[in-house]
Every structure is written in structure tokens, then in C-alpha cells.
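Usage

Read records sequentially. Each one opens with the input sequence:
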Amino acid sequence: MQTIKFQNLGNGLKGINFEAWGGFENFLAATSTGGGGGKSTLLRRIVPWLAKANNMTANAIAGLPFDILKGDSVYDSSDEWKNNLGGMSNPKRLLFTLASSLCGGRAYVIPTVMGSNVVELYYCKPDTIAEYITANGLEYFSRSSDLGLTGNYVPAGEEVNPADFQGEMMYFWLPDSDVEIGPAKCYPMSTALQSTEVLASMDYTVKINAETGFIPPTVLATKGMVGPGEKEKAETKWSNFLKRVGIKPVMVINAESADIKRVGAGMDELQGVYKDLTRQMMENIAASHGIPAALFMSDMAFASEFNEMIKLWYTSSEFVTIYHCIEETFTDQLLARFGLKMQFKPETIDAFQEDENERAGAFKIYIEAGLRPSVVSDMLGLELPEGVESSSLDEKFDRPDPVIQVAPMRNDWEQNKPVEKPIDEKREEKPKKSVLDAQQIKDLDLWRQVAQRNHRKGKGNATDFECKSLPKEMCDCIRAKLKEADNELDVLKAFDIAGDAGIAYTVSYDFTPLLDAMRIEIQGIKSNQPQPAQPLNITVHSYPGKAPEVKIEPANVTVNVPEQPPAQVVVKNEIKSDDTNQKEFIKQIKRLNE
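and closes with the structure output:
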């Protein structure tokens, strides 16, 4: 509350000094009954729906994840807050207070800085601060608190002269097209003021009616002229009866000489009007804060619409203006001097995460790209059954590739062994897989989400997304694919990094030993000479995607040989595989023994 000072104007006249409010116009703004911050603040204390809208906004902003960045690296993060800079031991509480105050258009904080550390960030009530604005711009702030603390403060970032000022003042002002410099005149609580006053008036009317036992005002009509004494006596007697109707519910009067008439509508008639009017005023208050009505009044929303309502609220309302104001003010007025900046991350909250179908698709893509299942599960936030750990998903991933052992083919001919061509034992070594760390996986998934969301909104495919943690060649490859993406499926495929930047498995099906053995056997049959048994080891590598289709055209070969016992092939173990080509290959081997 400001202290009123009087000036002696001479000739017995005195005037009020409006300097404490920053001039006469600011005095009118602070004491006005229309749109003034003081009245809005009072109504917030007595109208629950205005308090709810205010608290919903403040709680949502206080719960937003944010980072304090130094260049491209994270200096401090709300996920694991360490208060590295100082002055903000409880960031959620400070953000809640600032957001709540900004619903009234402005907020103020006194920072105490010593060297390279912030010692304290002291929040000030908006109505205790007066800004002095002249033709030269914002000059300084004057503070006069309820506790009697007074002083002048320079705008944050300017040099403090201890002789004239007590320190710096951080000022959070919402943008307003009707204000060149100074606090906003249009803000959530000002636009909700009239609707809030209607609710307050309705509540007051109900309160008055409740005090009289919900008995409406009445007129007691009498016949003929009534003297002043008799008139006052009748009014007093009738009023006392109405006040004590619960104690003495019966009163006898002369019906021929008096007639009782009700004035106005009773509560039974107003009940329906009050209900519709209250709902409309509630929707107006929600709209002034940018909160979807279905979210503000939970009885109007379906569970399936909840996330969509959250997204709408967080991306296209006063909510965005408020958290941007906090973000920019902290950066420009405090953090910039330390080479830091503040950045909120609303896109990382649960409401912006993909639904289960999209998560399943993303999980499949990452697994096929060679990423560890447990890492992908944690990255996408998959909810596993109770008692199941994400590490158990890696059991199949860490399992060595299965080996098919085929019994050697026996042959009764031991003479004139054909010259065996040496079998090239060199095998293409399986290239090492490149494993992304947790931060790289998180950044890759965030890029994918931003690209899909921008594509849906027609804002491009996020080709300019900066991702410092991923290898440059991988980022260039993804950007090239995003530039050519015409639909959402193409955008999703751009992040299928199989075969790109050396991240995926290089898989080959090596049937050389089998073909060499078949060639030697055919040569032995042609020359009617026995063959030694050839051991055969076949290694079938797991392939994360669709196996390449191999078509072998059969050759026309005519061989005339004596009848001989068929070769016996015994498959000693079974291969459990979902690959159709592998299953068909095993069936072909089994048929050799039939």
C-alpha cells in the first residue's frame, strides 16, 4: 500500500503528491475499479473460478521442464536441479509466484549479485512497485512495501549508484500493443474482470437471501391511509417476523385489511438462470487465461481429449506469452551477463509424447537400426508390466547368432577323388555396430517428434533442427531425407538410419560353403568316384529387416550314373526364426533326406 503524501499549495490549499504512484495516470490505473490490478487481486481471493484459472496457469508453468544453457551445453537443468548459479534453491516456487503475478500483467524481482554468483532473488508484490517513465524511457523503480521497506532501484542490468539507488530491479512485463513502455494494460485477469464481478455479485445475492432464510423482499399493502405511527409499527412487526421465521413460523394478520406481495423473483425462479449464467461466466474466465473450457471444467472433457486439450493450451494461449516473458526476462536481465540463457522445454512433457501406436512404430524403427531395446524403451517411456525391467528386453539382443550344424554327406565311393577346389575361408567380417549414447538417442527422438509435429502443422520438416550430439554425417543424411519428404511416412523414414553413417548392422547371407559342397558332390557323381565326407557349418545371421530375396535358376544337367544309395542329411537342431526365407531354406535341406 502506498503512503499518501500531501503538499502545501499555499492560501490554505493542500494537494496530494502522486509521485509514489509514478504520476497521476498511474494513480488512476492503480485505484480504478475497472480493469485495475487491485480489484482483480481482491476478486481472486473471493471468486474460486478466477483463483482456479490463475493457479492452473501458474502450476503448469512451474512444472515446465527448463534448461540453463551455456552456449550449446547444459549448465543446469530442472530435471536434476543443482542451483549452480545460485539464488534459486526452489525454482518451482519462484516460477509459480512469477506466473501467478503475470496473470495480473506484471511481476518484480530484486536480484542480489556478488561476483559470478546470484545470492538471492527476492519477489516483490506488484502493487508495492511504481515505475518512473519519462520521455527518456524507463528511469527507475520506487518500492514502498507493506512492511515499511522503501527505496529506489535501477532497471536490472544497469550500473547501481549506492548514493541514489539500493540495487537492481528485474521487471517482468507482458507485451501489449497498447503500451509503448510499461506494464501491460491487457492481461488475463483484466479481461476476466467483468465475468468475475458477475459471479461475485451472484454469490453476494445468494448470501443475502440465505441470511433471510431465502425469503424474498415483500410489500405489505393495506387499505386506506395509514398513519405514520401505525405504518412504522406494521413494518417493524413484519420485519421482525421475517427475521425470526425459523423461531416463530406463524403470524396471524387481517386478510381484509392487508395484502402481502413479493418483490422480484424467488430463488426457485432464479435457479435455472443462475446455473446457465454461472457456466457462461466460468467459460469467459477460462478463455481469458487461454484454458480450454473442456479442461477448465472437467465435466465437459472426455479422457481421450485430455492430451489434445493440453497441447492446445500449451501452444496457443496466454500460457505461451507468460512463459516466454519469464524466459526472456531471466535471460536478458540476469543470465546474459554470465553468458547463460534460460530455455523452457514444453515439448518434452507427457502430453506431447506420441501415442502408443506411434511409440510402437518408433520402437520398431530403432530396434531395426541396431539400438539396444532397453535404451529405446527408456527413451520412449514405454510402460512395462509390473516386475518387468527394461534390461530383460536385451536378452535376445545379446544372444549369439545361431549356427546350423548339418551332418556330413556320406559317399560309398572312395576311389579317384576329384580335385577339390580350395574353398575360400575368408568371410566378410561382421562390421562393428556403432552404439549411440543416451543423450544422442534422446536428441534423435526429440528431432523426430519435432519434425512430425511441424509436418502436421504445415511448418516444414524441421530440417534446420540443431543436434550437436549426433555425428555430422548422420545429421546431414537425415536432413537430406527430410528435404525430400512429402508426407508423414517419409518424415518417419528419414529417421530410419539403417545403413546410414555406419550405425546399422551390415548383414550378409554366405552360402559359399554349401554351394562348394554341392559342386564337389556333383563332380563326384559325374566321375563315378567316391567323395570323402565334407563337414559343413552354416552360419545364419539375424537380420533386423526383410531378408534379400535370392532367385536361383536351375541348370539343366544330365548325368548317367549307376543306381546308388541316396545321401543322408540329418539336421541336428531346429532354428526358431520368423524369417520366411530361412524357414524355406531349412525345409529344402530336410527334403534331401526324404
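Summary fields computed downstream for this record:
- Residues 267-288 form the longest helix (22 residues).
- Residues 16-216+264-349 form one domain.
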